[in-house]
Amino acid sequence: FFNLQSNFFKYQCLTKFKMVKIDYLEAIQVEVCVVVIVALGYLCGGIKMFTVNEAFSMRRTIFLIAVPGLIFREIAIHKLSLENWHPLFNGILVQITIHIIYVLIVFIFRLKDKKQALISMLYSTSYVNFIFFGYPVVQILFGNQYLHIPAIQALVTHFFCIPIHTFLSFDERERSEDESISGEDVDDITNATIDKANGLPIHPVDNEPAENNDTQNENGSIDEVVTEENYEETEPIEEKSKEKHPKMWAVLWSIITPVNVCAILGIIWSATGLKMPVFLDDFTNDLEKAALASGLFTCGIFMWEHPFFGCNIVKLLLALFVHFVI
Question: Is the dihedral of CA 258, 259, 261, 262 positive or negative?
Fold first, then answer.
């Protein structure tokens, strides 16, 4: 299995990047630019110029508008062929490898909570931001004709990893939220739904039970009562279904996102072979420019909020090894 993945990657490199000479000086310059933008975000987070809530709002806008436009354009302007979609299979093989390694680790070693340990390790290493970090490197070193590679690689995260991890972590997150929900503000709870669009597994949001609402009505704590006679008849049926199957709806909404929808639209456009109109091409190209710098900046802010200091050095080195080497 590992030889298959290695040979597949070598075949992809030989076919996609054949006769492309890499200028290592340009590579260093690109990496320095990326690091500088992230460092600016890290600095602004440190001096509290931008708070983590503002960074969440920025990232939500990026994943609602800019990143979907970027992925749509890069998929739509390239021919729908097996050669162009090799990066998808490569990304799937990498994710399967990482998941198998961690499943083996969880079952070999005696861990107190195997599921929680597995989820923690998967979150630490299986997510790669190909758009923000890979896009500028590919553009400068290999040219615009290869920009579909980081876009397609990102679909592995959005189409497969996020729904699977949402399914695995839903019960765990629901349990942790139930323990702390009494001390949280309502705005903090509703903000958890931001993950539906920002490229992370969805956190389950525990709504107030119906019995609690009935008690509030009896005590007169509700300021306004709806008096329409047909109110109960017009209640959406899907709301009751969400209460019965919260995990199913969480997984569903982790799949139906702007990124995935625009990716499917890009595949359809690519299959037609039509040339993209100038106004649409220019508009989506501007969205690409907006996504990169702002996305890297928010990464720096989040790094300040989640420092490496105080981490278990063994776990940190293991996560870095799996993330960058395997």
Answer: positive
Q: Find the angle CA(87)-CA(92)-CA(98) to the nearest 5 degrees.
A: 125
For 193-239, the pLDDT digits (tens) are 434 444 554 444 444 444 444 444 444 443 444 434 443 444 454 55
- Whole-angstrom Cα distance, residue 326 to residue 319? 10
Pure H helices in the chain: 2-16, 24-46, 52-61, 67-76, 86-108, 114-125, 135-141, 148-155, 162-180, 186-190, 210-219, 237-244, 246-255, 258-272, 278-305, 313-324
CA angle centred on 28, ends 19 and 88, rounded to 5°: 55
Q: Is the dihedral of CA 143, 146, 148, 151 positive or negative?
A: negative
**16/165 Cα distance (integer angstroms):** 31
* Contact between residue 151 and residue 139 where contact means Cβ atoms under 8 Å apart: no
CA distance 272 to 278: 17
CA atoms of 277 and 75, how far apart (whole Å) = 15
Q: Which residue has the higher pLDDT, 228 or 126?
A: 126
CA pair distance 247, 168, nearest whole angstrom: 9
